[in-house]
Amino acid sequence: LPKVMLQQYVDGEWTREFAAGFDFGKLLLRQRLEKRMRLLSDCAIPVKWRLVAEADIPDPEAGEGATKKGWPEQFLVEPSSGELKLADERMIYVTFDASEVCTLSFNVKLEIADTEGPRSDGEERWITVQEFPVKAEAFRVDVEYDEETKQNGLDFSRLLVGKEEEAKFTVTNSGAYAVRLKLKPGRKVQEFLSIDFDESQEIGGGQKVEITVHCKSNRDVDVDGTDSGGGIGFFFYEATDMVPVRPLLPKIKVSV
């Protein structure tokens, strides 16, 4: 058989090792990741090639609920087929678009055929020369603060000058993976507020944390909860790579 093989680019090197698969890992929703493969031929004749995905995908032409084999719509493969000339090589770019929550695992075959077209029986004979698994996951981060805080905010409007009060609220991570949280008081309230929360802390999937906010002012101040310069900004990140999550949650309203 003509010697044709794929390599993948891993940790700065090209390798023909696909035992662990062509793995995109976990991607946060609305992220994209491109990975590269290199197709090599050191044979003395030209060959045609194609990458055949074995995933079950919808087949609208065959009726509702019917499936066929192919690449899931979250993947873009450029190119997915072509021709290799003598001692030729091709770069292949595979992009995974985390457009919806999903966990995907399927095999892909590298098939080749000669360039002379169909045989005497009218069929084109493709030969599988390599097969490997493709894996990818897209996940959603689902974090909220408690409903009472969402509706009413934190109220320090009866605070006496020179005294300190505290208010608590709860943050729940309903997603599958850990997140990290950063809280940033607005410019009109930052000098009065201190927040008891370790920003290096991971909030695991299904976990809740209680956060305490202290307020103290040594002068008269009046900041309404709806003031755009007030409130507490609420930013969270996927814990492993610190990828920021969008869209942002609304500010926590603060009245002082």
Give a description of the structure.
It is a single chain. With 256 residues, the chain is mainly β. It contains 1 helix and 21 strands. It has one helix at 147-152, and strands at residues 4-10, 13-15, 22-28, 32-41, 47-53, 55-58, 67-70, 75-78, 81-84, 89-97, 102-114, 127-139, 143-145, 154-155, 164-173, 179-185, 193-196, 208-216, 232-238, 243-244, 254-255. The chain has a 5-stranded antiparallel β-sheet with strand order 2-1-4-10-8, with no helix packed on it. The chain has a 5-stranded mixed β-sheet with strand order 3-12-11-5-9, with no helix packed on it. A 4-stranded antiparallel β-sheet has the order 13-15-18-17. β19 and β20 (243-244) form a beta hairpin. It is elongated.
List the defining traits of the structure above.
five-stranded mixed β-sheet, mainly beta, 256 residues, five-stranded antiparallel β-sheet
In total, how many beta strands? Answer: 21
Q: How would you describe the shape? A: elongated
**What is the number of helices?**
1
Show unreliable segments.
none
Secondary structure topology:
Blueprint: E1 4-10, E2 13-15, E3 22-28, E4 32-41, E5 47-53, E6 55-58, E7 67-70, E8 75-78, E9 81-84, E10 89-97, E11 102-114, E12 127-139, E13 143-145, H1 147-152, E14 154-155, E15 164-173, E16 179-185, E17 193-196, E18 208-216, E19 232-238, E20 243-244, E21 254-255
Parallel strand pairs: 3-12, 14-21
Antiparallel strand pairs: 1-2, 1-4, 4-10, 5-9, 5-11, 6-7, 8-10, 11-12, 13-15, 15-18, 16-19, 17-18, 19-20
